[in-house]
Amino acid sequence: DIRDRGGNLALHEACKGGHASAVRVLVAAPGSPGLETVRLSQTKGAEVRALVADALRAAGKDPDSDAPEPVGYARKQVKSNAFFGPRRTPISCKLKKQLLQTKRQGRRQEIENN
Description:
Elements: H1 10-17, H2 20-28, H3 46-58, E1 80-81, E2 85-86, H4 93-113
């Protein structure tokens, strides 16, 4: 039971690095704490993530409760920020094209009227 300064075992470090073969060897070693001590957010790589999720299910824990928050367009974003102003939501190309066309037509009519 040798831990580093952060309190992580070799098993945790192998999961963080995404080394599936090393994880299997460490789990099979006698005196190993098991994969249920590793959080799903500490894993890297699909194979290691699957090993940890299977171990959590076998231990009766829900692996989805430790799921990472969605990123990109799926995440819930605040509408404004104290530093950057309102957030711009992405729009479709078709809608953007229509907006630009109406803007151009309005400018042309304004120039023709003057």
